[in-house]
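Practice set, problem 2.
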Amino acid sequence: MDIFFFFPEDLTRLGGTPFRIIKLAQTLGVYGYDVYVLATGIDQKDIKHFTFLKLKNTSFTRYFLSSELAFLLKKIQPDLLYSFCGVSLFPARISKKFHIPLIAEIHSLDPYSFLEKHNLPESIGVLLHPFMRFLVRPASHLIVVTPALQKFYQPKPSTLMIMGTDLTPPSKKDHSIRLPPKKNKIIAMYSGNFRKCQGVDLLFHTIQKLNKSNDTSFLFAFMGCTQNEFDTYTKRYATGDLCVYLGKPPLHTTSAYLSYADIFICPRISSKTNLYTSASKLIDYLAIRKPIICTHTGDPFHLLKGNGIYIHENPDELIHALHTISRHHSSYTISAQKYTLSSLTIQANLLQLHSLFKQILSPS
């Protein structure tokens, strides 16, 4: 079976969606599917078990024009077109012309992400709801990552799917990766961008309070953000020597970098953006088997099951949680090691997709 993935952005950027696309393409390829991936860029080391096709149009028009996609669909004639996120939906509508079934995997409600990024009122997003529902009309089926998204797109046929992981704790140290010495400190890690919805202000308020109280028990490691973002925030909040920047590591080194942490922090805040999206990195944290501190926000935070601590959006609660885990770290680690990821793996996703592909291509 030939499956054509379409995502009109760069797969080298660190984030849940590029990671998802690459890992899913690799896994499908291993299990016998012929997978093509059309995107604007990729790290050559990530091309395994699938064919990468470079999208030449890197201008803003790639979100609206579909000439390259149409040419390749006509040439390859795949059994399915599989698009990712709202940014791919408009060009992917061309699938109807070639009578190719379209599966659209939706990770968020894009208007709210756009409004948040540009500091515009969330209330404007409601005006774009009809347009978002219009965009998915040509899709045979939707893959959604939260119950809120599934409800939003009703009555469109959809499958709720938690984005699975294939990460495991490294069996041995990778000597090609150089990480800062821990110096007997507890490493609390945040990975991701510094958008408002991620709750980085809450995290930096916490670090500022620890610095002012001369509490140097923790070293806060940041990866996935830009150097400029990191420098701006550490200066603004006067965090002293409590923070270290790990950069934006290549995708294939993710497991090694995450394993540097003793505790993971996911401080997302309440917002429309987080209502409709899922923190896929939480699943990766669970796979690395380290304790997690996260806020009561969004989905799938109910998956913690004793592997960490829930907090409200409050610096004092975050400080208390950090000290609680540091005092009882071994018990939280043992709990994490016992946690079963049987339903949260990329292989579990594959079983769902295999059934869905058969249903779409061979309806009863």
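Problem 2, part (b): a different protein.
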Amino acid sequence: MGLFREKEPKTCPLCGQPIHGNASALRDGEVCEACLRKAGLSPSNVGLLKEMRLADLRERSTKAANNEPPAEKPSERPGTCPLCGKKQPIIPWKVQDGYICTACYGKVSTHISRSETEQLPTAALTELLRRVEAWQDEADCECCGKNLLHPAEVPVFLKDGRKVCSSCARKVRINYPTAFVKNDGEPLVILDSLLTLTLEQFKEALPKAAEATASLLDACEGCKAAFEAKGLMKTVTEAGGNSRFFVWGTVKLGSIQAGDRMQVKRNEGVKTFAVLSIQRYMGSANDPAPSAIEALAIGEQGILELPAAASSVYPGDILYKS
């Protein structure tokens, strides 16, 4: 007897025979290819199989043996594909909030995996197809070559119309932040300083940003995030005598969330305090955002609400998170 026993094959719950090769997964089990063929299906019908149970396949096999048409499943019904808008005899491919046709699935599956396709809503897949058709062969970051078609990617268009990915954009955010501006009666506008650069200027900005990042990391001893205070907005003293401070500025490194413990260096030592909440900075020290947000990313301006321990924070200070 050898040291290792040969792994026994799985047994098909429908026919009771060993499954040789790859099993096909249903919602509540795995079956052999022979049982799929009896039901008029094949392993390539992945989208349909994932919606079926063993009982459904057994019923379909019985109907096929009796030359009866199979009962329609929601994914088999004729309908209109939400991506291309065309009527299709079968809409088989499941996505997060519905089904798409085989033609559209073929287009999106060349850029993202099957599991990603199933997890994305039709709105995101529509955006992916729009990018595919609009950009065609010019769908890569013109700095690093990363594919920009995925709907989760937020590319930045530069002054000369060239495109860079969000990862490359973050590398220079230490020197080229974004700002949020709101005029009376107007919607919130995002001003991106990267829009002042051509692709050539963007590439020239990369080493300068790397130097600035290295200098900042050295100053804050390898911190995870850093926030440059631009100004103090106001102080609120509560009924119990506790004070809270609001300071606005820009995230120079990493990201900051409410609850993060920040530090600032002083001659007498390091002061530590927690971020109570975060708000958008709307372009005016007298116009704080009406509600809190979860976090600020590198290059974003915002307002940090701080406790009384932060009374030693002044404009120009770097608050850092270890």
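Answer key, part (b): The helical segments are 33-38, 46-49, 54-65, 102-108, 114-119, 122-135, 166-172, 199-219. The chain has a mean pLDDT of 80.
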